Amino acid sequence: MDTRTGLPVVGMVGGGQLARMTHQAAIALGQSLRVLSVSPGDSAALVAADVRIGTHTDLAALREFAKGCDAVTFDHEHVPTGHIATLAAEGVKIYPGAETIVFAQDKQRMRERLSELGAPVPLWRPVSTAADIADFAAEVAAAKTARPSRHAARPDRDAPRDSTAGWPVVAKAVRGGYDGRGVWRLPDLAAAEELVATGTPLIVEERVPLQRELAALVARSPFGQVAAYPVVETVQRDGICVEVLAPAPDLSEARALEAQQLAIDLANALGVVGLLAVELFETADRLVVNELAMRPHNSGHWTIEGARTSQFEQHLRAVLDYPMGETSLAAPAVVMANVLGGPAGGMPIDERLHHLFAADPGVRVHLYGKQVRPGRKIGHVTVLGDDMASVRARAARAARRLQEGE
Ligand code: ADP
């Protein structure tokens, strides 16, 4: 507890934009987020008053950081689970726990657990050789032949194996991927051989015939209260989320409820405390879980202005075991567009901001105080309105102005 205010101290491990925006929410609750940051120049370290410099893999630094915190949580999932378990055993309230966050760290453990829970997942398999990947592609081909109709002829087992059937498959690094890094579309055996030669531990998945991507965001407290946000559509380019549309356009109520229920069930089954973002693929006839994140998530940035309670405040409420806030939309259509670093040179960012504010005073801007590098997420914009198409066009235009200075 902060004796100056009588209010709790939450520590967040990691000093990125998620910690920066969580700090903003902490201020409104009378708190000041404590941040463990690798460098004083990190996004949250630039603005928080209580910054400790240290690495998230250093147990001594984590121990020191946790002293005096009412709860400790994360801006990323790279803290070793052994360290989290040690701190918890020493009495630190650290959320989510080691036995839970592992499913957001390790794609193989996540797929295994989701399969055990009966959650909808793509066909997948852990692999260690290119031959394993080829076998998997053959399995995918067989499943596809079997799937269209229950009465379709069984694949002819004696027929020569078609070496192109089942490809491409999607390979993923078991650990450490983000923004599409660590995901590879493998068109053939040669590509599989090349990837396996790098020695990266891998799983492979069937390429899901997705129509679009959705995200279901929920928050869960230690008491067990769960709050679900409206389901959103996430639009990716080159593996990076570029837009989030809330609510997901033309999503049937049944599908939306199914996605929310799935996220609630997973939060309960995995014992999540804090936020859980369930990234989903929507195909012609079903939802498939892509991956899990257990922290504030890019698919929830729209909630700062677009929902009654922002995901950042909700995460704080959850880890402090406060009752959850209302999650309903603040407008019929909300769009968040990420601002990525554009090519070097051109109009300074401050001048771009001038132009944007002059062009559209209704746009809400969040810049993360990060150095501009091409493709790096440096901020986001949010637009609220009545009509999704026009709100989306305004958000995209605003992001482009900041990104490219047009
Ligand atoms: P990251 O951890 O880097 O975010 P993801 O597992 O979310 O990686 O994959 C990044 C993107 O790759 C997804 O948003 C989706 O567009 C595509 N993708 C991933 N897995 C599959 C799959 N099994 N089938 C089709 N597309 C996929």
Could you walk me through the main structural features you see in this protein, from its secondary elements to its overall organization?
By secondary structure, the chain is of the alpha+beta class. Helices cover 33% and strands 24% of the residues. The strands form three sheets. Strands 9, 10, 11, 12, 13, 14, 15, 16 and 17 form a nine-stranded antiparallel sheet that branches. α6 crosses α7. The N and C termini lie far apart (47 Å). The chain binds adenosine-5'-diphosphate.
Keywords:
406 residues; binds adenosine-5'-diphosphate; globular; alpha+beta; D-amino Acid Aminotransferase, Chain A, domain 1; single chain; Dna Ligase, domain 1; 33% helix; four-stranded parallel sheet; nine-stranded antiparallel sheet; 17 strands; Rossmann fold; 3 domains
Spell out the blueprint of helices and strands:
Elements lengths: L9 E4 L3 H12 L5 E4 L12 E4 L5 H8 L4 E4 L6 H9 L8 H8 L1 H11 L6 E4 L2 H17 L22 E5 L9 E4 L2 H8 L5 E5 L5 E9 L5 E3 L3 E6 L2 E7 L6 H18 L3 E9 L4 E7 L9 H4 L4 H9 L13 E8 L8 H11 L4 E4 L9 E9 L2 H17 L2
Parallel strand pairs: 1-2, 1-4, 2-3
Antiparallel strand pairs: 5-8, 6-7, 6-8, 9-10, 9-11, 9-13, 11-12, 12-15, 13-14, 15-17, 16-17
The chain binds adenosine-5'-diphosphate.
